[in-house]
Write a structure and sequence with these properties.
This protein has about 290 residues and is an all-alpha fold. About 65% of the residues lie in helices and about 0% in strands. The protein is built from 14 helices and 2 strands; from the N terminus they run αααααααββααααααα. It has a two-stranded antiparallel ribbon. It is globular.
């Protein structure tokens, strides 16, 4: 057991491997996918999972998204790894987040896989209180720090940093182990990207994805109606100087982004069967009406 833990720690600390991993080529990985990513030997599956992290930054969208992400997601959702193995995978993904930006694929896809890691802890808790708190901070900092707003490209596929980070926040927001301060940290990260100061206009569904962690924080019932009203009201000034209204491209983009977020939350809250989520509607509507 001690030797296994040492090996896992070494794998987590090692640099990202080449893609495809040693012993595989693209046709072999395609065949693995066709076979439902079935790998009978647990040790071989564990080693391949660690190696596929290296494909999350690959420019080939089939390897990056269609194989590496899908395989890692499927295995974690099938509870194919124990806590030590998922922890080692998490630490390796943290290394991608902290590493060079490269062509802009590795960080967003590390965040997306980390949303699946967060889900495993939500379904069957395995992280310590400190580890979970560190993940909340890591996820929030990642979302706040996104400046590459590229979404989809017909040749290069997805990057989608804001949306993937929002998925990570969503899985954390769903976790009943999070406290009020951690929920507030998630909401602060959403605010940071709800209306990008740069004037980037979202066109790849980002407002819908950013809405989800807000809805699931509301489901926790940790905030009063007055606190929600203040939170939504604080979003409106982020559009910018009212003197620029309808006379500035960046202002129009920010208005577009905020409207998209608020409309998504309003619609989803109205369709929710959860009374705690439905109580968001008056505060959201007030914010919508306050938009110039």
């Amino acid at each position: 057991m001690r030797l296994m833990l040492i090996v896992l720690l070494m794998l987590a600390a090692a640099p990202a491997m080449a893609c495809p991993p040693p012993g595989y080529d693209k046709p072999a990985l395609q065949a693995l996918k066709k076979n439902g990513f079935a790998v009978a030997d647990p040790a071989r599956r564990r080693e391949l999972a660690q190696a596929l992290v290296g494909c999350l930054g690959d420019p080939d969208p089939e390897l990056r998204d269609g194989i590496a992400f899908e395989a890692l997601s499927q295995w974690m959702r099938a509870d194919a790894f124990d806590a030590a193995q998922v922890g080692a995978l998490r630490d390796r993904l943290y290394g991608l987040l902290d590493g060079p930006e490269g062509e802009g694929y590795a960080r967003p896809f590390a965040a997306l896989v980390l949303s699946e890691v967060a889900r495993t802890d939500r379904i069957k808790p395995w992280m310590s209180v400190a580890e979970r708190a560190a993940m909340v901070d890591k996820a929030a900092a990642y979302v706040e720090g996104v400046r590459d707003y590229r979404g989809y490209d017909d040749v290069q596929g997805w990057r989608h940093g804001v949306a993937h980070g929002a998925d990570w926040l969503m899985q954390l927001a769903l976790n009943p182990a999070l406290d009020r301060a951690q929920a507030d940290r998630i909401l602060a990260a959403v605010i940071a990207q709800a209306v990008p100061a740069s004037g980037h206009a979202y066109v790849f569904g980002e407002p819908e994805r950013l809405a989800r962690p807000v809805l699931f924080v509301a489901q926790r019932g940790l905030h009063s109606d007055a606190e929600w009203a203040a939170w939504f009201a604080a979003l409106v000034p982020r559009i910018g100087d009212a003197k620029q209204a309808y006379r500035n491209v960046a202002w129009l983009a920010r208005r577009h982004d905020l409207s998209g977020l608020l409309q998504n939350i309003y619609l989803q809250a109205g369709n929710s069967q959860d009374p705690k989520i439905r109580t968001l509607q008056p505060a959201v509507l007030a914010a919508i009406k306050a938009i110039p």
